[in-house]
Amino acid sequence: MEPWYSPHWLSPAQWQQFHVVYPLALSLIPAIPVLFLIRYYLNRNAQQRLNISTGQLYARTPTGRAQTRGSWLSLLRYLLPLSVFIGSSFLLIALSRPQIVRTQREELSEGIDIMLAIDVSESMDETDLPPNRLAAARRVAQLFVNGRKNDRIGLVVFAGEAFSLCPLTTDYGLVTQYLNDLNSQMIRTSGTAIGDALARCINRMRERAPLLTDTTQTGNKRSKLIILLSDGDNTAGNLDPVTAAKLAKAFDIKLYTIAVGRLVTSASQATTVDEGILKTIATIGNGSFFRATDIRRLQSVFAQINQLEKSPIRVRVYEDVQDFYRIYLYWGIAFLLLALLWKNTIFGNVLED
């Protein structure tokens, strides 16, 4: 930091960085010359003067004009009130308490746990959602994952069987890569095992990640939810979806279900989407059911879930306050001492002391 006597502290650039706590003190600076004028008019008739012969102070120029050599000396008499004015101004600046405040914001979020359960059965190859249902779901899910912050996300895929593809993690790049690799040939067993998929998700939710607990420092439980995307009824698996939904409710896990695809794609090929079981388990799991009949609707569904399930954010604001009033206090004392020095020289009127 620059020493107090450095001209750096008088530069406009430095003053732009200051925050003044008591601006009223600065507004009193113009009152100082007013006080000088009042004092002058009140005492102008009572001033004591000492007449001194100044004949030697005058000289004649080559042009014949008289030039006083004491003109500069007469101007120097104003140094005393000027020093008092500057010193008093600096004292008022010190009283205004100039300071630099550096603010730092820190956002803290415990995040939530999200398990994506995506149907990869052969029916997801239908092209009513271009290029097909699975590709559309995969792309929108990737956007959803990339839009989350501080959340742990896992992935379960299912057809006739259910497999946990990715555990809960904050590595969104890893989850996105797994989503990119999804295809309808991953699971050879035909059917749709919705109950088994929910059970896999619940087991992942029950597992505690290293160095992480299910409760925050404030004692609140970490929010958990399952997002299940499918286009059909439960036709396989060992666990009934309703039983799995009740189990999820017991563990305080919300269920969001999305029916992907149109009810009927064409007259010749009646590809239906059975949304009955998806509505039932969403209701049991205190979540919501959505239908996505096109890519825009699917994006809208994920956007709604993104708005509904926001992790709580606590904002901490740190302020680093550094005061600089001492610097201007030193400047004020220095000029007042200088004024006292002037007063004890020929520039002060000792008759008025």
From TrEMBL:
Q: Where is the VWFA domain?
A: 113-305
- Supply the SUPFAM superfamilies for this chain: vWA-like (SSF53300)
The residue ranges crossing the membrane are: 20-42, 75-95, 324-342
**Does the UniProt entry include the keyword Cell membrane?**
yes
Keyword list, A-Z: Cell membrane, Membrane, Transmembrane, Transmembrane helix
Cross-referenced Gene3D superfamilies: von Willebrand factor, type A domain
Superkingdom classification of source: Bacteria
One Pfam family of this chain = VWA
Its protein name is VWA domain-containing protein
Provide the species name. Spirosoma foliorum
